[in-house]
Amino acid sequence: MKTFKRIIEELTKRGETIATMESCTGGGVADAITSIEGASEVLKFSAVTYSNEYKIKMGVDKKVIDKYSVYSIETAHEMALNISKFANSDIGIGITGKLNRADQNNNFGKDNEVFISILYKDKYYDMDINVDKKSRKENKEVIIELIIDKLGEILWEEGSIK
Q: What is the pTM of this model?
């Protein structure tokens, strides 16, 4: 599995920080980040918000969930924005979706579809992916690798990572 090492090094050099609000990945992105030495310099806060109630308590607009569903890019935007604000971080990551199971509390959205939004410098970088691995763990690993790749692209676009 890929690691956040290069991204952590670059963010540390730039004095930038990152925060995550994760649902279906259950803190997997924060875990991958904190597995790297020096992560405490860049990761100031992370939240796992499995329920709609706690997404809303963390700032996600209930009207967005009601209109688009909890499984939508609009909700992922809200998650990225509000975790970034809460942690006063340069990068906010919001992740919502279903992995290997139906959700009895939210009967909409496709199974195994995940919405990821990365907010950086007032711009959203979005991914809508379908995962197809047999286990939740394997699907989480796929998602984390895609996020690592996307963050690398974003920072490359900014002229940071060479």
A: 0.90
